[in-house]
Specification:
Number of strands: 0
Shape: globular
Number of helices: 9
Order of helices and strands: HHHHHHHHH
Strand content: under 5%
Length: 166
């Protein structure tokens, strides 16, 4: 199931608060994350790569970036969080891409196209003004509107839409 958060629901989610948008969009999505993914992406794992983030906060990043839940959207969001973490280096990227392409189970594994989308997300994560977004305590922003949060974090949906068309 793929959808664009801002277009599918025909809502102006920019005017809604983070808690409400999350409950509307992600309340039904409670995936069981495979162990190998948990190892590389969960902040509680000793082997987690830079960009590691809790599942709920990962959902918040989807919302802020206006990305749905397709494999390409997932690739963009993960690329974004890794790119936004200044500790990410070429070895981390190699490891992540190797696992995402060849070791992660279906439907979590990435195609070549998904890996290109990951790279676009990575570049966008490097570009925005706020760094280490994966370490932000989003709980304090629950009542803030999505538009406000996008503004303070420097996330521009028009730029993301241009990236999606390339």
């Amino acid at each position: 199931m793929a959808f664009d958060l801002d277009e599918t629901f025909q809502l102006d989610i920019a005017q809604m608060n983070l808690k409400k948008v999350h409950s509307v969009i992600f309340s039904l999505c409670k995936p069981k994350i495979p162990f190998v993914i948990w190892l590389l992406e969960n902040p509680n794992s000793l082997l987690a790569l830079p960009g590691k983030i809790s599942l709920r906060h990962h959902d918040y990043i989807h919302i802020l970036l206006g990305r749905g839940i397709s494999p390409q959207d997932e690739a963009f969001v993960i690329g974004f969080t890794m790119g936004n973490d200044l500790k990410t280096n070429k070895l981390h990227l190699f490891i992540y891409k190797l696992f995402a392409r060849f070791i992660y189970p279906y439907p979590y594994n990435f195609s070549t196209l998904n890996l290109r989308t990951f790279d676009l997300g990575f570049m966008y994560g490097r570009k925005i003004k706020i760094k280490q977004i994966n370490k932000i305590n989003f709980e304090i922003y629950q009542d803030e509107t999505i538009g406000y949060l996008r503004n303070i974090f420097g996330i521009n949906l028009d730029e993301i839409k241009l990236i999606k068309k390339d």
